């Protein structure tokens, strides 16, 4: 079973990119972020014609998340992250697909920092940590997938020099991510590629894509019940190089139907 996460950065303007990726890679589940479209403008028909059922929470011009499943309908258990009834930003959706509970999230960017946007990022992160603890303690296999907008360590970025003031690298952001992992979540990409500088995001400036000056901010976290099934993980880099591409590339895992041990790779593998 292949499950991917992909910050599409505008689903209407990049629908062609999305459909091309789905046709070539055929993930069983795809978690999307930054739809930048209201619910009524979500391209459900085009995705259904491609073989994917969908559940989504849209928002005009900003945010928006979705879970696509090939040949089956995601069973939605939650739209929105608990903990703040006044929060109207569309950043979290949770659904069951083939027995796995999947939380698709778009964590706030937090820039500029310091300031209210960074405060919102940290507050949202703490709400995620609280909800993740409940999911970790459940009897179900659970996956948290999405754009976490945090670079966990200096090994997850090409160079920290021009990013030192960015919200993605702040000690508070990294501390929240570490606190989340401490609950027992497995960072799939880093587990499979412990020694490789592997990136999921390259911004549009200063030839960062052409020079592979990237960041790892898209993550797939497996709870203790799901982690033994992890077989492989990677990044579909070719998508980032396509015309009109998002600044993110799809990041994915492969799960065994039974219990397996993660296959670690080295940079020379």
From TrEMBL:
- For the site labelled Interaction with DNA substrate, the residues are 248
Q: State its cofactor.
A: Mg(2+); Mn(2+)
The protein's matches in InterPro entries, at most eight in alphabetical order, are given as:
AP_endonuc_1, Endo/exonu/phosph_ase_sf, Endo/exonuclease/phosphatase, ExoIII-like
Q: Which GO terms describe its molecular function?
A: double-stranded DNA 3'-5' DNA exonuclease activity; metal ion binding
Cofactor: record remark: Probably binds two magnesium or manganese ions per subunit.
- Give the matching Pfam families: Exo_endo_phos (PF03372)
Which protein, by its recorded name, is this?
Exodeoxyribonuclease-3
Record-annotated Endonuclease/exonuclease/phosphatase domain positions: 4-248
Species classification: Bacteria, Pseudomonadati, Pseudomonadota, Gammaproteobacteria, Lysobacterales
